């Protein structure tokens, strides 16, 4: 009998806390809390084997979809600094994802309610752990995207975090990559994100972006600049001639983005520029 797998065992005797099951050589306890159906002596039943809190091999009539060699989505239900995160696989006992299989930064660990695509593994002491799927596992069972996905919005879950970006699996089962340049902050492992497909690769994977489309960026930048302008009483010492480093320091945007946003405000008649300053027409006209 092996933890993390199922077995068909015979009910050999009743005990104070449940029933003992046997394969003819070894007995294991099926606790009352892990019984789902009525049980009779000499009956053969299928059970899932795992270790209880004392490390003893135990049985459950709940058969998890995640087992040794079998993957499925499981929910994060607890976080323990210095240890890892716990996931619910359907048993009374939650299973640990070791910190060795999590990002180095705890800020990128999954939060409670996040989901991980995991299998069960055993350490050298035969204790069960949950382990997130590798990139190879995800790609082996993934679907391929076609060119019709270009510019489409997709929902996905982060299954791998790297310095250069994050790997995701979409709700449709397509593997995608989010480069660090296409995000404003790094998503955590297990986080659900909504992105835009910016490239479909020959192998059927996709590249996605969390950045707004160009016209959306201009709108957002224009709002930020105009709010700043109004907050200063309708004038500011910044124009399309200002130095890039000054623009970056004040607005956290490139000069190109700043000029495009100013151009939008100029076209809409909301501002004008004079002597190295920008003014709001609204306040000047008393509107």
Automatic annotation (TrEMBL):
Residue ranges annotated for the S1 motif domain, each copy included: 151-211
Organism domain of life: Bacteria
Entries under InterPro entries matching the protein: CvfB_fam, CvfB_S1_2nd, CvfB_S1_3rd, CvfB_S1_st, CvfB_WH, NA-bd_OB-fold, S1_domain, WH-like_DNA-bd_sf
Position of the signal peptide: none
Family: Belongs to the CvfB family.
Designated name of the protein: S1 motif domain-containing protein
Provenance organism: Lederbergia ruris
Gene name as annotated: yitL
